[in-house]
Amino acid sequence: MFFNNTPEDPQQLETLAKALQKGISSLIRERSDGALTVKATMERKRINEFMRKMRVDSIDKFVEPAFVSTVNYYLTEQDMIRKKTLGALVIYVEEHYVPILLRSLKYPTVDSQNDDALKDACGTLVNIMAGRFKNEMLALGFTDLEMSPFSNYRKSALMGVDFDHKQTDKYDITFFINENKRLVVELTMGPVPKKK
User: Which of 39, 70, 114, 132 has its CA 20 to 30 A from that of 24?
Assistant: First the structure.
């Protein structure tokens, strides 16, 4: 099957997905002082689009209800103002696992009975992971991207998530923590230039 990303480098999306996987795996190992084992699988998929937005629904990822948090990337601050989206990062975490994951990674605990607090905690996680991904991209020689504030949802983003409409593909990265599927991350990204 032929996948399209950019005419300049059709493998760039895969390179970025591998960098994202590496960054999140390292984050989990470092923050847990090696107490958590982490394995990840990557799969390239077609973007499911509806009304020019990327569909985002946790039912495809987990049987149990999950929180969904998203961050968008832009080439410049002006692009962010104009909503000219370059990429999207989406994380899915089962509701009951959010406080456990935060505690395991030595982040402040949250009230497991408070949906708003759990959603915000999931947003904090996507923000940390998105920042880590930016650092991984910089290490590979890519230009520094602008990042949106996170958005949070329960189960799905009903209105979808912005993405670069020229892109047809995304990567799903599934993280198994201590042998259990605990975190799913989606990444789509348009062409990212290298630093000059």
Answer: 114
Distance linking the first and last C-alpha atoms of the chain: 34
For 30, other C-beta atoms within 10 Å of its C-beta total 12
Give the three-class secondary structure for 163. Answer: coil
Domains and CATH numbers, the chain: 12-189 (3.40.1550.10)
Beta bridge partners of 72: 88
Contact 67, 118 (CB under 8 A): yes
Letter for the amino acid at 35?
A
Measured over all CA atoms, what is the biggest interatomic distance in the chain, rounded to whole angstroms?
Answer: 49
Distances (CA, A) of 196 to 110, 142, 155: 43, 9, 41
For residue 57, count CB atoms less than 10 angstroms from its CB and return exposed for 0-12, middle for 13-18, buried for 19 or more. Answer: middle
Q: Tell me: the pLDDT tens digits for 124-146? A: 999 999 999 999 999 999 999 99
pTM over 0.85: yes
- The 8-class DSSP code of residue 149 comes to P
Q: How many CB atoms lie within 10 A of CB 149?
A: 8
Alpha-carbon span 132 to 85, nearest angstrom: 19
C-alpha torsion angle, residues 137, 138, 139, 141 (rounded to 10): 90
